[in-house]
Amino acid sequence: MNKYLNIIGLSTAALMISTSAFAAELTMRISLQLPLKSHLGQNLALFKSKVEADSNGSIEVQIYDSAQLYKDKEVPAAVGSGSIEAGVASLTRYVGDIPAVDIFYQPFLMNSEDKIRKAVAKGSPVRGPIDEAIKSTGSTVLWWQAYGGAIMLSKGGPISNPTDMKGKKVRVFGKTLGQFVEASGGAPTLISGSEQYLAYQRGTVDVGMTGVSGVKSRKLYEVMDTITVTNHADIEFIVVVNSDWWAELTEGQRQIISAAAMHAEADVRNNVAQIEAEAYAIAKQNGMTVVIPSDSDIAAFKAASGPVYEAYKDRAGALGAQLLEAASGL
């Protein structure tokens, strides 16, 4: 069983209200769109546990999961403005301010675990400039959370190639992914992660795009019956803090929080393969069919993806060109 499930056997309420609350000198609230039982939620629980232990209870971490406070798309503005101290957002939520962040959604660019690890390493030629650029939004990146590869969800059959995509309404969670869908013949619809269950249930879209761990945590196997393992993009979430709040902390507080963040980042990155494997197993146990496209099917998707790369180059400017060159050389 995934060790995340054994980290902290507490309810959501208990995670939000620390037993050390009365002794806390500092409170750090974190907004999360996913359920606490998701692997990102459990990663925050690990962070909370370490911060509160290492600070002897002087720092309290409160986790507000399942979009209780803010939806994913609202997190960058909420954190950047100081409405909340910290939040978890999909990296692509910064694409409006920093188009280059969608380097991870260029179709099939990050196509191996080795490339992904090199790209997301702190200070790497890919991640370093992104972390620096995000500071312009009023936020500072604490750590990156691995979510896994992007997959397709459907009912009644797989989406193995562009022919299967043609004419289908597809849930996406970023502009570049929408362009990939359009290039493949589908019609993209931007839907928040917390809203996708209802979108599939109601038939708002025909096809879903997500990470397989979301199939488990959101019980998407109840509304979709097929997973196509395209892994056409690498999904990354980031935990950000308000930069002004961060600057006002003592050096000791920043050191405690930073150390816990690095611990949490390494833990989720090292366990993401196991997390995905368990999610696939749960999906199969609940009746889903898992389909792996053939090499020729993937080649067809790649052939259709040329316009996506060109649009990225046009939109992402000098930073995008810099990141694309760095990522291509990994």
Task: Please explain how this structure is put together.
This protein is of the alpha/beta class and 330 residues long. The protein has one domain (3-328): D-Maltodextrin-Binding Protein, domain 2 (3-Layer(aba) Sandwich), CATH 3.40.190. The chain contains 13 helices and 10 strands. It has helices spanning 12-16, 39-54, 75-81, 113-120, 127-134, 162-165, 175-183, 196-202, 212-217, 243-248, 251-285, 295-304, 306-328, and strands spanning 26-31, 59-64, 86-90, 139-154, 169-172, 187-190, 208-211, 226-228, 234-242, 289-291. The strands form 2 sheets. Strands 1, 2, 3, 4, 7, 8, 9 and 10 form an 8-stranded mixed beta sheet that branches. Strands 5-6 form a two-stranded parallel ribbon. The longest helix has 35 residues, at 251-285.
How do you describe this structure in short?
The protein is an alpha/beta fold and 330 residues long. It has a single domain, classed as D-Maltodextrin-Binding Protein, domain 2.
